[in-house]
Write a structure and sequence with these properties.
Elements: H1 2-23, H2 26-53, H3 58-73, H4 95-98, H5 100-123, H6 126-147
Length: 152
Amino acid sequence: MRSLKFAVITAAIVSCGAAIAWAATPEEVVTQREDSMKTFGASVKTLTGFVRDNQGTIDDVKAATGKMAGVSANLLTLFPEGTAVGVGKSAAKPEIWANWADFQTKVKDAQDAIAALDAAAQEGNAAKVKAAFPAVGQACGACHETYRVKKS
């Protein structure tokens, strides 16, 4: 009985989230996407300080990777058609939707790298964090190189 209740509640929450995302305007989605990328950026700053300069604590790293993992789980939903360059502050190239399968693969690679980094952080293993961090940069960079307008 408990698992049925849990399943019903989970389905309701997921449905509400989908309805909210569906009801958002393209500009609102772009703003959500930009906010998510800012979360990634802040987390990467924390991780860079830890990995390169031994700044911060493993608890700081756990919080940062946890945020990244949370954002990455829904990353594809932040890229609906109609949110390319020209919509709000979007830097998303139209090639995303022309090459959707490749984009999905790149997002999956980033999600996998972030999950591995988060697992290392949650273990409290600084050496594993330092070893896993470059893969996140490479995965994120591969997507940005292909599908984001370069910042000037």
